[in-house]
Design a protein that fits this description.
It holds the Pfam family Aldo_ket_red. This protein is an alpha/beta fold. The protein has helices spanning 31-42, 57-71, 91-105, 123-135, 149-158, 177-185, 205-214, 218-228, 240-247, 256-263; strands spanning 8-10, 16-18, 22-23, 47-49, 79-84, 110-115, 139-145, 165-169, 189-193, 232-233. Strands 3-4-5-6-7-8-9-10 form an eight-stranded parallel sheet.
Length: 280
């Protein structure tokens, strides 16, 4: 199991991706965003996740440039993810959207580019565009987000390149076992968004008891549970102390009975949209 904040997993195409990163969903452009990412880089984070629809790629790019300079590291040491929005799902439109994201970020390439939602009738053309960009060396890895098993099966019927990552809503109340099993069986790395269920799990009595047992916080227990389930995770925070706290999960391991206890909290409860009924 991962031993440090720099620990990585190897995607099926050989690219290494950090187990833990920072997400910037709903963080607006401005000093708060820039400082949060710079804090993260300073404290050892190497993975940053954004998306076109977040409308903060320019700020993320600024933070990356300033952060790597301050930390004395290279761009190549970071793993940067963005996503194509649903209104740009088409071959030419997706390629154009990628170039726009790259320009806003001020980068020469992305480490990972995802289709944000599985919009029926559109994601296959978008995937063809991602395959082109990948084969041209403009993206290190390509994947999808919010895809259920039937979406993945449908995509893979015609895909020349299998998705390397599937980023989905994943937390103790939504364990997505079927999706996770399919991804494991097909060498697709599962990644969690909203791992803390937007704060709704912080007062769960079972999680509080487990946290006391390990002298950890509830968020640290959940994030550790993610990693021990083989799931990459990208908690969002803009506060330096919380960013540090979220990374202090590599000095303990949850016992099997506690893993099973957390697994049993599943209720198939979403805080985000249902991928089968997504309206953008």
């Amino acid at each position: 199991m991962s031993k440090s904040l720099q620990s990585t997993t190897t995607l099926h195409n050989g690219i290494k991706m950090p187990w833990l990163g920072i997400g910037v969903f709903k963080v607006e452009e401005g000093p708060e965003l820039v400082n949060a990412i710079k804090f993260a880089i300073k404290h050892g984070y190497r993975s940053i996740d954004t998306a076109a629809i977040y409308e903060n790629e320019a700020g993320v790019g600024q933070a990356i440039r300033e952060g790597i300079k301050d930390a004395g590291i290279s761009r190549e040491e970071l793993f940067i993810t963005s996503k194509v929005w649903s209104s740009d799902l088409g071959y030419e439109a997706t390629i154009a959207a990628y170039e726009t994201s790259l320009k806003k970020l001020g980068l020469d390439y992305l480490d990972l580019y995802l289709i944000h939602w599985p919009v029926e009738g559109k994601y296959k053309e978008a995937w063809r565009a991602l395959e082109t960009l990948y084969k041209e060396g403009k993206i290190k890895a390509i994947g999808v987000s919010n895809f259920q098993v039937h979406h993945l099966k449908d995509l893979m019927l015609e895909a020349q390149v299998k998705p390397m990552v599937n980023q989905v809503e994943y937390h103790p109340r939504l364990t997505q076992k079927e999706v996770q099993t399919f991804c494991q069986d097909n060498e697709i790395q599962l990644e969690a968004w909203s791992p803390l269920m937007q704060g709704q799990l912080l007062n769960d009595p079972i999680l509080i008891e487990i946290a006391k047992k390990y002298s950890k916080t509830v968020p640290q227990i959940i994030l550790r549970w993610d990693l021990q389930n083989g799931v990459i995770t990208i908690p969002k925070s803009t506060k330096e102390q919380r960013i540090i706290e979220n990374s202090n999960i590599f000095d303990f391991e949850l016992l099997k009975e506690d893993m099973e206890c957390i697994n049993s909290l599943n209720q198939n409860h979403r805080v985000g949209p249902d991928p089968d009924n997504f309206d953008f």
